[in-house]
Structures are given as structure tokens and as C-alpha cells.
Write a structure and sequence with these properties.
single chain; alpha+beta; Rossmann fold; Tumour Suppressor Smad4; about 25% helix; globular; ATP-NAD kinase; NAD/diacylglycerol_kinase_sf
Length: about 350
């Protein structure tokens, strides 16, 4: 027995950065292919129910229908009961419904923006994020079959806690003293008055960057931190970077194929609970997308916490599950030891 949620975002991997940079387009048919492998591996590992986010392309139903009759699993496949908006709010609604419905794990197909919305609704249910977006710092490149097996052992309670499931950091965004949003990778203060196009790709408009993580191999805004003040996902700190004329000219891949020079005025590590004040008219982008407008006279601040979603490490989860014997059918066979071990 086991219950897993699948949130596949049909819009991920298709924003303006395909025009202004050189991002790969992850088409929805490829997402169908990934989900097909997810369904087969989840069923093989004992999952009996999948709840999925309904969306305009029909990724999950299409994946299930394309499985040949010989391999088609006997499992319950149910759409989350929700009112579709065709916006990022669907990911949030689906995550909340799945968490309330008893899902033991949520699998996401998307980028940082998709996972930010899921993180806002998933409560304590662990996520297994599969990368299909643009700037993929939070989700990872993991093969669908392996992701399904890892999600199954977590959803069934065969593995719990670290190192298989790890907490993550989050940036809380406050406006005039009220919590209004969050980010799981970065919050970027932009020299703009209105949101306009959501995706961030022009480094010349950046004033300040606050990150939960940033490593040299990352792409996107977090790469600026990764090439200046690297911070890993598990460290109990973040980083704060002021962009502008200064003594440092930094080179970083801020979008796929787009390596820019970024002038840095100041930078520092920040501790958990530390607050960054924003007292100027601006737009704040969260995980690569413009979300919050701050007008003249309004105040905002950004707070670093370790209250982000729980995240599954697929490799660690499967290693622990195998050590516990989950993949063995005949337990009466004694292991063969080398002579040196006997």
C-alpha cells in the first residue's frame, strides 16, 4: 500500500529564456515519457494509488494510457479535485490537496518556480523534484524509473529521515510587516517598477540577491553566489550580494548559454533568522520569476529560515531501502561470502 502525488507542470521549460538565452525546450511529450516510467516503477514497488494535478495537456493520463496492456498496472489513478486556473496556482492547489489527502510523497516535474509553488502547499510531505524547467537549482536530473522507486520507498515508510529525506532552506518575503510569499532558492531585487515579463534574464536590472544556496555548478541567478560566496543546500546559512559598481567584476552563467559579467559592490554570508531590509521601490523576483512589487513608501524584508520543504535524495533513499532488504523476494537464500570474509 502507498499513495504518491504527481505534479507535472506543462508550462515548465518554455519561458522567454528560450528567446533571450539558449535554454532547452522540454516538450510535454517528453514529460509524458518520464511520467510513464514513474507510473511503472511506482507500481512495481508497491504503490497502489497516484493522485495527479489536472492540466491542459493531460500529461499523467496520457502517460498511463500509453502503457501497453501487458505492462499496465492495476492501481488507482485519480485527478486532484480542484478548479484549474492554468496558472502557477494550480501547482500550489494540487500540492495542498495531495497533502491533505494522505500522499506520502510528491513527485514534481518542473523547475525552481514550479517547486516554489508546490513547497507553499505540501506541508510536511517530502518532495522528489525532477528537473524539467529552465534554471534548475532545486530539482535534480534523475531518471524517471529511479525517481519512482525512490518515491515509493519513502511513501511506504520503508525509509525515513536523513540522509534519505533532508530539510531545506527558505526565504520568507514580508511586505509592510506581513508575510506574503517565499522563495526556495533566491530572492532578487530588481530596478523595476512593474512585474511585466516574469522571467529574470537581464543582469543589468539586478540590485540585490539573497540566496538559500548557490554553487559553482548552478545556473541562473544562484550561480552569481556560487561563483562568489558558495553555499550548499545543507549549510545553516545563506548569502547576500549587492550588485553595482565596485571592485569585483564577476563572471557567471545567469541563464542557459548566457555568461554575463556582473559588477559586485558588496557581499556577505547571512545566518538563519537574519533579515535583509528592502526600503526602495522595486520588483522582487522569487526563484527566477518576478512576483512582488514594492512601491515608494512601502517596506519589505527578506528572512532566511530552514523551514523549506523536505526533499528526497533518490540515491540515499534507495541505498537505505536496499540495505533493509526491500528489493529481495526470496529471503531464505543465504548470502555467499568470499573466502576472505569467512
Amino acid at each position: 500500500m502507498g499513495h504518491v502525488g504527481i505534479i507535472a507542470n506543462p508550462a515548465s521549460g518554455k519561458d522567454i529564456r528560450r528567446l533571450v538565452a539558449y535554454g532547452t525546450v522540454v516538450d510535454n511529450q517528453e514529460k509524458v515519457n518520464i511520467v510513464r516510467r514513474l507510473i511503472l516503477s511506482l507500481a512495481a514497488a508497491g504503490i497502489t494509488k497516484i493522485t495527479y494535478m489536472p492540466e491542459y495537456y493531460g500529461i499523467v493520463p496520457g502517460a498511463a494510457a500509453s502503457i501497453c496492456s501487458r505492462h499496465r498496472p492495476d492501481m488507482e489513478l485519480t485527478a486532484a479535485e480542484m478548479c484549474m486556473t492554468g496558472t502557477q496556482l494550480d501547482s500550489f492547489q494540487a500540492a495542498a490537496i495531495m497533502a491533505q489527502g494522505g500522499a506520502g510523497c510528491l513527485i514534481t516535474l518542473g523547475g525552481d518556480g514550479t517547486n516554489r509553488m508546490v513547497a507553499k502547499g505540501c506541508q510536511a510531505v517530502p518532495l522528489l523534484p525532477i528537473s524539467t524547467g529552465t534554471n534548475n537549482v532545486f530539482p535534480t536530473l534523475v531518471e524517471g524509473t529511479i525517481a519512482g522507486l525512490a518515491a515509493a520507498v519513502v511513501a511506504q515508510g520503508l525509509v525515513t529521515g536523513a540522509p534519505a529525506i533532508k530539510p531545506s532552506k527558505k526565504l520568507n518575503i514580508y511586505k509592510n510587516g506581513r508575510l506574503i510569499d517565499c522563495a526556495i532558492v533566491d530572492a532578487v531585487v530588481l530596478n523595476e517598477a512593474f512585474i511585466g515579463s516574469r522571467a529574470v534574464w537581464d543582469a543589468a536590472k539586478i540590485r540585490r540577491i539573497v540566496v538559500t544556496r548557490g554553487e559553482p555548478h548552478n545556473i541562473g541567478i544562484a550561480s552569481i553566489a556560487g561563483n562568489l560566496v558558495p553555499v550548499t543546500p545543507v549549510e545553516p546559512r545563506g548569502a547576500d550580494i549587492e550588485v553595482g559598481p565596485g571592485s569585483i567584476q564577476l563572471r557567471a552563467p545567469i541563464a542557459p548559454g548566457l555568461i554575463e559579467q556582473v559588477p559586485v559592490r558588496n557581499y556577505r554570508y547571512i545566518r538563519l533568522g537574519q533579515v535583509i531590509e528592502v526600503n526602495e521601490a522595486c520588483v522582487i523576483a522569487l526563484d527566477g520569476e518576478r512576483e512582488v512589487e514594492i512601491r515608494g513608501g512601502e517596506q519589505a524584508h527578506i528572512e532566511l529560515t530552514f523551514d523549506g520543504p523536505n526533499v528526497i535524495d533518490a540515491e540515499a533513499a534507495l541505498q537505505l531501502a536496499v540495505a533493509g532488504g526491500y528489493s529481495k523476494f526470496n529471503t531464505n537464500v543465504n548470502p555467499v561470502h568470499d573466502e576472505e570474509e569467512q
